[in-house]
Amino acid sequence: MTLSTALHQASQTDPGRVRDHNEDCIEARPEIGLYVLADGMGGYNAGEVASGMATSLISDGLQETWRPRDVDRLGREEAKALSEKLIVEQVARANSAIFTTSQNNPECAGMGTTLVVCLFYDNFLTVAHIGDSRLYRLRGEVMEQVTRDHSLLQEQLDSGLITAEEAKLSQNKNLVTRALGIDPTVETEVHVYETQPEDTYVLCSDGLSDMVEDEEIRLTLITLKTNPTLTVQQLVQAANDNGGRDNISAMLIRVAEPFGVARGWLARLKSIFR
């Protein structure tokens, strides 16, 4: 079972109905189970520079350093630890490159980007995020927000200063407390989760999550679960129908089958015929 057959995926990015250009960027490397989404900000159209650098540098870096054939020789817990380590290293590398570019180019001053990175391997998922772009998971009919926003609004919610209903009307929705490329270093939040067959994962920018209620996202995922492409198209369309005030990006990955890795004598036997 290869990742490309076990994971069904679709993605779409759209400028929305208000912005004249798209500062979101997405990249998928399905052969290694990697999906990256970034929502850029700052500078004169430089948000798209930051998000483009983030997605390409992290994807290229992990393509080079995360080698499934070598990782297969590790124990499962070792593989989890390595996935976290390599993602944090590549995010730090991208952060440094974006920060340096913003310092050396006046037109890019202050640019940065949010980030979500998902790496699937051996029936687990390693997730790293910075900012308020999100990862949702639908399991059965229950949808959860896997990531927790790094935003002023989330801090106000956590401290009890505002209610969830008040948060929907807040003017602070787009004030992130953490972003890639703004400072010389950045703290990456990273976690590992076990996957299950028929799980559906959605990476998205706030252009989707701010414009479409979680319940509508959940119902769309359930109703169209056998058609990832149509699901993503419908989510983007819903955000545009509700105003499309920001760029909209969504990446959907559905676990069609288990994607466990053979170890021990079976792995050694397989390696002979590679």
Automatic annotation (TrEMBL):
Q: Where is this region: Disordered?
A: 1-22
Gene Ontology MF terms = protein serine/threonine phosphatase activity
List the biased-composition ranges (Polar residues).
1-14
Which EC number(s) does the record attach to this protein? 3.1.3.16
Top-level division of the source organism's lineage: Bacteria
Question: What range(s) does the PPM-type phosphatase domain occupy?
Answer: 8-255
Supply the alphabetized keyword list. Hydrolase
Q: Does the keyword Transmembrane helix apply?
A: no
Q: Which NCBIfam families match?
A: Stp1_PP2C_phos (NF033484)
Organism of this sequence:
Usitatibacter palustris
Q: Which PANTHER family does this chain map to?
A: PROTEIN PHOSPHATASE 1L, PROTEIN PHOSPHATASE 2C
Q: Keyword Hydrolase: yes or no?
A: yes
**Gene of this entry:** prpC_1
Under Gene3D superfamilies, the record lists:
PPM-type phosphatase domain (3.60.40.10)
- List the protein's name: Protein phosphatase PrpC
